[in-house]
Amino acid sequence: MSTTVDNRTTSTTVTKSSGAVRVVALITIIAGFVFLVAGAVTWGMVTSQLKEEGITVAAVTADNPGSLAGKTVQDPFTAYAQANAIKHHALTAGGGLTYAQLGTAINEQKAKLKAEGVSTADQAKDETVVKLTAERTTAMNGSFLRASLFTSVVAFGVAALVMGLGVLFILIGWAMRKLAGDVVVTSVPAAAV
Q1: In terms of DSSP bridges, do strands 2-5 and 8-15 run parallel, antiparallel, or are they unpaired?
Q2: What is the DSSP secondary structure assignment for residue 63, as one 8-state letter?
């Protein structure tokens, strides 16, 4: 289509958008909604499962209980706080030693007893070995509990990531659809300028 403006002839071209771009944009929007719903469902499932366990965040110490002490474990913050409380109590029960360090201490005590000529059966009954073994069991249980709580923290993080990606996909799809609309191009021939 040609028009004359101020004694200049301009040309206007209307270009139809590609149907393929609009289809990809729609698929992107749908995927975004699926991600958003999947992330929200995952978040809700993890929350309900944690609530069903009936775990209350333990105080770290009487003097410094922690800001979330006494609250029900139901979100990433309370799960993380409970994992830290368990770590503190497990280390306290183990005399400040971790599971691996307690294993090393047990082996060192057994080697010492073996060097003194104590039989394997009597080594297992040694007061220090029995005490360290009980502490190591407590540390092991604490590690398992912490790992379970950290798994829920990671699940919350993945759910949040998926929901964020869903929002991003929806916005990208929406932008693609806007950009894929009809394009109007007006040009002035170079000689007329």
Answers
A1: antiparallel
A2: S
DSSP 91-115: HHHTTT--HHHHHHHHHHHHHHHHH
Cα 16 versus chain centre, distance: 43
Q: Cβ(157)–Cβ(39) under 8 Å?
A: no
> Does residue 61 contact residue 36 with C-beta atoms inside 8 Å?
no
Two tokens at 160? 């949040």
Give residue-wise pLDDT tens across range 119-147: 999 989 999 999 999 999 999 999 999 99
The verdict on pTM exceeding 0.85 is no
User: Which residues face 15 on adjacent strands?
Assistant: 183
Helix-strand-coil percent breakdown of the chain, rounded to 5?
70, 10, 20
A 10 A CB-CB count for 151 gives: 12
Place of tokens 């010492």: 112
Encoded amino acid at 58, one letter: A
CA neighbor of 65 nearest in space, from 77, 90, 82? 82
**Residue at 173: amino acid letter:** G
Residues 6+ apart with CB under 8 A from 59: 65, 66, 69, 70, 85
